[in-house]
Amino acid sequence: MARILLTLLVLLNIATTTAQDSSSSPQQALENYLEMPRELAYLHLNKAVYLQGEQIGFTAYVVNKQDLTPSKTSTNLYVQIKDGDNKVVKEKLVLLENGRASHTITIDSTFSSGNYTIRAFTNWMRNFKEQNHFIDQFKVVELNDSNQTDKVANTAAVDVQFLPESGHLLNNVLNTVGVIAKGKNGMGLSQAQITITDQNDKMIANLSLNEVGIGKFAFVPELGIKYKAKVVDVNGKITETPIDFNIEPKGIILSAITSKDDLRLQVKTNAESLPQINAEEYSLMLHNLKSTSLYQVNFENKLNLDFIFNLKSLEYGINTLTLFNADNKVIAERIFFNYQNLPLASLSKPTIRATRDSLEIVMRAQKALDSARLSVSILPKNVLPYKQNHSIASYYLLQPYVKGGIERATWYFTNIDERKIQELDNLLITQGWSSYDWHAIFNNDINISYKPENLLEFQVVINNFKPRKENQKFLIHATKSRAPQVITIPGDQDSFIVENFMQYENEPLSISRLENEVLSSPPLYIRSMPIKIPGYIANTGYLNVPFKEKILTDVSGNNTRIAFSDDADREQLDEVLIETTYDKVKKRERELANHSWGRISVVDEKDILLFGTLGKYLATKPGVQVFDNLGQFNVGFRLINDGSQYSASDDENPNGVTQIPDENQSSLAAAMDGVIFYLDDMIMDSSFFAEYPLANVDYVEINNTGMGSGFLGSGGSIKVYSRFTSSFGPYETKKYPTYNFPVAFAQKKAYYIPKFSSYTDEVYKNYGVIDWMPEMQVNENGNLSFKIKKPSVDYKVVINGLSQDGTLVHLVQEFASNSSLYE
What we know:
By secondary structure, this protein is mainly beta. The longest helix is centred in the middle third of the chain and has 13 residues, at 418-430.
């Protein structure tokens, strides 16, 4: 626990206990409540306004809430998009690897013009009432749609809220009140002037709100006096409203002043309260996610108790001061933000190397970063909207701890100075008490109903089950992303569960019974989990941000053409099929060979009847030597007619495995060691194919050159592709039963940069994309380096990311198209 420097400015008799003292009920209750780990989610969207047909590019970051390191609790992240009517438009399950994932979502015909919300969460997050999930807004624009309107009006009805600093006002004591004013669109009433008067029109306070409609004032409230406010917006429109202050005759309040280095706290009461307060005990608890400190407070006829906390000794980020009475009732609370020791890393001024048509941008991390993973968006400088509301820093460090959305949240973490420290403190005053539910904390009210999810799971029930003596074996067939898997269960068991299972969309699950190396299709009932993408009903604090900039939608006089995929400019020709009578096997071999580095051999009915096993079949192929005996299987290659005594040819030993003279066994074994085996494009151990039934094989690819197989396959490869049909009769008959997962992992698709016919007009400046790089990394020298096509307009680079040790990276930097930074 961090050591806290506590300076008393008046003589106090305060008994102090530390976080190690578990006898304190509030302290122990909070520690128990926070003991359960939490996750936080953030999505870096490549931009915020999209055109019909465009892709949303995003990188997801999921971290441990306590230390911001990449989460290993969950691998499953749900991403959901809803329209303005709160109806789901798109949703997908995304695979997290070390707390990170990148994907795309196409703005297809299911989207119409308008505003949408995008949400990301894990199943584990659903257990907690805090806002640990991600939610934000984006806009879809359809060019030449005259029905699109953007409601931009700070001249409509005004909503002004007056929020006492520690939750309530106390009579005849100087109180601080936070003010937040919003227009009808829900955005802050920028630069508004507010005058507070009493019922006799005596001016109590006069203040100016900041750019997001927030301010504060101090006054001494009096019971029985009514107050009102006059609000004047930047357009001169006047709104008058009564203030419904709840003034308590007795009690205690907290008042704090923050700076970069310390927090000055006053615990205040009034004269009317002293007789009662002197006879009671109070506890002041300072707490955050990592530590708690509890102080026994006695007033002893003092109206004010003053403290100074050294912020360098506290945990960074949100801290909370909570005052309890002897019955553990919360009397007052104040949240504040500690800017000291923030886990933020900046990047240096870039070095830009220009060539004829491209730029190489190099930035150096200002502090050591442990395997930092970043996402980089490069956009025209004036792309809409001009400013993003959140960054990875503001979303992790601030949003989960406040109620409601935060306007311009990223501003508080860019070029931090004393003004921003004070402005953030004003924001926190308007939040009142913290986002903690103390009733739930004291009652340990955490209902863990949703487990952490690691991949998928499914249950298989054998229909018409009949017990047997021997064990049962089932083969889960391979897909392009998953190796085959054999499940063995007792003979008297009628079901089994498979956990931690990888399954992508559009890859049906196929399971066969394996008996005596022969596959059959048993009647199975399969149920997978989850069966649907869950809803998320926890408290949501996102800002419904209107796009204040003028949205350019009418481009009827503009000749700009935009392509959203590689196929967009290709003419689609009607397919003409010409059926011939030549051998279907040879036809398939030729078709498959067009996409292969090796020789293709399609297995037909005669091959299965003649050879029986894969080893005997391969032994008949030119240049192939096979060893298949006693559970061992291997293949070697050599040139035909190489003069050796054991060269293979088409007519050599057609009904068995090639026999190898003893004196040549060692040389062949060496050759066999370098051959790589695949089943349905997944690398397999060679022993898997020992006595492998040829009836399970559709075709094989024999590649003795190693070309196209990378370094591992330099010694050649054998690729076996499974047969999912009957080996006798047409290919379309007797398929193995398949099961489609209702929820499976989304396939990762490449991001396609839209192509514009003009890269200098207003359409491109408002909606264009220069590049999107979702998976970047700081190299071993601490540099981030990337290349982009040389922009023809001024541009900006937006970077978000984090390191393995929980250091956050955020940067927005603008460049001129003819930048003087070019080398």
